[in-house]
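call fold target=Aminomethyltransferase, mitochondrial
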Amino acid sequence: MQRAVSVVARLGFRLQAIPPALCHPLSCAQEVLRRTPLYDFHLAHGGKMVAFAGWSLPVQYRDSHTDSHLHTRQHCSLFDVSHMLQTKILGSDRVKLMESLVVGDIAELRPNQGTLSLFTNEAGGILDDLIVTNTSEGHLYVVSNAGCWEKDLALMQDKVRELQNQGRDVGLEVLDNALLALQDLGAGSGGSSPGNSSSEKPRGEAGRAGSQGQPAPGGRPLPVWE
């Protein structure tokens, strides 16, 4: 946690919060909520904490939602997405496993390149969206939605067992790491115009907190969510 907070402070990003429609205020009657490693940071910066998918997360800081939105579009902001399901797919048949569950050519990803994809059922119906990254450390790093945690994990675990029974080299490990997401990726060119989108498949480069790199221009801390 200290490492994550120090990175936020050093780069000067603003941390953003969850859209209000996705959450509800905390109450004593609710089950005990999980906390991300940045929980104390949110409280210290005036975050209004709410329940979301079993986690206590900030819905708003001192700025209005409009101000936060405009800052993100004009500059950039960080999202605390540590609540999301983070999974390592291991083994020499890891690409075969992932390509049996999602749409897209995972094998073509360069080291540390990620792509937005979809979990699908046997009939091709969409189950959930996710990001798959081909790490340079010899595993696939998968991030999917906290609201579909149990469903997504069961899907991957079932496929792992199926392939292992066929003698395939594949494994799965659930991670419990702090995770930050940077938005807007157009910040280096002054931000993206509302409504603009790429005609190509979404791709991105993955990195670790504390790794070398240049902070995006205009960044300040805020609450940011998908």
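return ok
Confidence is low (pLDDT under 50) at residues 1-14, 20-30, 187-202, 207-226. The first helix runs from residue 2 to 11.
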